[in-house]
Amino acid sequence: MDRDRGPRVPEQRIPAPSDVIDLRFSVLGPVRAWRGGDPLPSGSPQQRALLAALLLRDGRTATAAELIDAIWGDDPPSQALAAVRTYASRLRKVLSVNALVSESGGYAIRIRRDCLDLSTAQELAVEAEKARATGDRNHARALLNKSLGLWDGEALANVPGPYAESQRVRLDEWRLQLLETRLELDLESGCHAEAVSELTALTATHPLRERLRELLMLALYRSGRQAEALAVYADTRRLLAEELGVDPRAELSRLQQRILQADAELARPNDEQAPAPQIAQPAQLPATVPDFTGRASFVRELGGKLATAEGSVMAVSALAGIGGVGKTTLAVHVAHAARPHFPDGQLYIDLQGAGSRAAEPVAVLGAFLRALGVPDTSIPDSLAERAGLYRSTLAGRRVLVLLDNARDAAQIRPLLPGTAGCAALVTSRVRMVDLAGAHLVDLDVMSPDEALQLFMRIVGEERVGAERESALDVVAACGFLPLAIRIAASRLAARRTWTVSVLAAKLADGRRRLDELQAGDLAVKATFELGYGQLEPTQARAFRLLGLADGPDISLTAAAAVLGLPLHESEDLLEALVDTSLLESAAPGRYRYHDLVRLYARSCSERDETPQEAEAALSRLLDFYLATAARVYGMERPGDRLVDHVGPTVHDGLAFDDQREAQDWLYSEANCLLAAARQATDGHRLRLAVDLLWAAQDLAESGANSKLYEIAATAVGDAARTSGDPRTEARARTSMTNVHLVAGRYEHADEEAKEAAALAEAVADPAPVYWSDNDRGIIAFNQGRFKEAEEHLRRATEGSRADGNLPGEASALCNLSRIHLSTGRVAQAIALAEQGVEIYDRIGHTLRLANARYALGVALTQAGRPTDALEQLSEALDRFETSRQRLWEGTTHFRIAQAHYSARRTARAAQHAEQALAIGCIGGDRTRANVLITLGRALAALGQADRARACWLEALALHEASGAVEADEVRELLAPLSAA
Predict the structure, then answer these.
(1) Which residues contact 348 (CB under 8 A, 6 or more apart)?
(2) Minimal CA–CA distance to 262: which of 306, 229, 309, 285?
(3) H or E element in which residue 523 lies
(4) Of 158, 223, 366, 672, which one has the fewest beta carbons inside 10 Å?
């Protein structure tokens, strides 16, 4: 069997008749048949064995003797031949007379290859192998996942007979090979942490398969878990010695040595080189820069277009991009490389389109005609006549025309050649969408590697190599814009006493950065001013105000709020800015500034806008975010009073058709929303920002956005503490409480919650009071102060009821369940959790219903009811996944692992514990340590003592660092291993 191809299938087969085209069959699981979407009866086990034997022959005829041997082997019944004929007759009636045919004393099934799941899986595997060979790992992974997804359990499930058994073994081996290949691609693509969980489960199922062990070691090592990786080797070596009396294979041993040596070469670099340009005569092209760097894909793309100009219609390629992005440099470089394709000449003109005095086409045509050898006396006066003579002169020639810095399509149309064999290369800040037939190219900034390479070429490898991190800071401060990098590098090259870190420090000040980026007649600010000066007043205002907002990009709806304009007017303005390359279209309906353009926009705002208008624009943005986030919160949590406690907004907020759409908005806007909150430092905007963090609190527990939420909450909290506004400070502290709780910093969380409650009580703001009691109950529970925790949670229950907040009451009841569980009141714990489930279910509160089912699942596990617990926890997990609460997903996987371990399903327990580690959990390092304890227990039960010890040692270190009482439990687990 070829690796990743499965059982060999003949290339030729007899075509299937037309009346069996809608038949489909599966053998990668139970043997089944369908006509269209309707399942067909496949009969008794022996009849399915006959069907499987025929399907696996790929249309070739099987004799009756072969079929008898396949079904019964060496011990057939006396009436075996009659039975085979009966089975065949029944199948023919179900399928079609054309599907199952009789010939030469045997039978065959004639169907198309794509009608059998095995054939489809084989073809997908072949395509994956081809994709991998060309370096397209992502496509190869997707194809392999499709192939593996065709399996539905064990191949040929419950089909009797020696032939089915041998095929089952072969198909199972092939599936494992596909899995190994897919996992290899996962690791090559950097998905190490995600692969650990799957590999842990596979090694538990196939403990003697060394390739899986090898991949697990590599995944653990690349996930920063070196000790566990080495422990896998130790477990493998011991298992092989005990079971087979052999040592690990050489590849596994070599990998162990590389891990011991912390070999940095376990990653694979991939470099590319651009062809060097060749110079030919005659030419008007400017000289290409000697330090041209990167842009390999654009060089190939444009070079390919120019290379095909001969014998085709005239080719036009138009490059657009922000000023300073390197359009001219790239165009000149590509034009020089393409000169061999245009032996009759190359024309060049700077059309001055970005300035106030753009070149007139009639003058340009006069210069071109003279360069082409037309005497002055033969050059006509009018534009139309000159354009006609220009095209006539180029007829039959192969000439490249480089039109640099064009204003618009109208300026360049008369300058385009009109015959095959010629080509035009155009650069402009404006996208030439109205230039018929043009190949449009949008040029973006350099990649970090390209930017660093350009900087190094100008400054010198020795100076940059000594301060690589500072050099990366410099090119990042330049926004990876080639002009800015060239200016910064030229300044450094001219100042031998400066170090790279000195230049990095100068560029670190955003307010001074544009002033620093000038050298001689080159200046980044001057480049931007050319484009800004051509804007209409309304466009210039939009450019200035939108630059005030932090965040990686901005949506159209948010931009409309900033501008205070209707959606359609805002879209027209933004698209106009995109056309001038002062703004980028990040995706449909989303826009972004280059970092340096944003700085320039802000400097324009400081110069041309009043402080009141700038403040009003940012307030409108926060108002829009708060109104919409409150709507999302209300849809996620029906009955929750938070939406009644946030301040009033002017904007109504966006309306959503369903929760999915609302969640999509919240998570797609997370970075921008949190950045807007982080910008607020005082007054009205600070109160909006505090309430916005309340309404967007799901982001704190999402995992993907938790760190950004913490940064925003910290900034807002610092501002609130100096604001002199107790209400604002109290609410900001509740957000910080949540941040510390998610991270497992319980002492800090308790301090924040205590202060929040005191401040809120003083101004009669009820919600922060009972929320703080709920949070302090959770904190006290986690610190083992159960009596105090119960008091806080009782007050939280009463406060929620008094405020009419049913979700708050349910949350407190579920947390009380945890207290009762830890104090031995298991029955009461289950009852309290069931009350929480009932409340959430009654009001349709699906998100926190997941939390309630989680609490009930934990209680049921401790009550010795793992099956019931898993039912609750699985429902909770589904909801957390739907709501994109990644940290709660991880925490629920941890509890599922505990339930499986309680039921002695140790392999499943290990798999879910690994998933918890890969995703992350609520509670930070403390919860991670508890997951490692459970994982260690499961691994120990699976006979992987060394890896279990590695898990427990890491757990001990984490618990000792936090002073957690669970450290004693870990020491008890390690004691027998230390004694051994």
Answers:
(1) 284, 285, 286, 335, 401, 402, 404
(2) 229
(3) strand 522-523
(4) 158
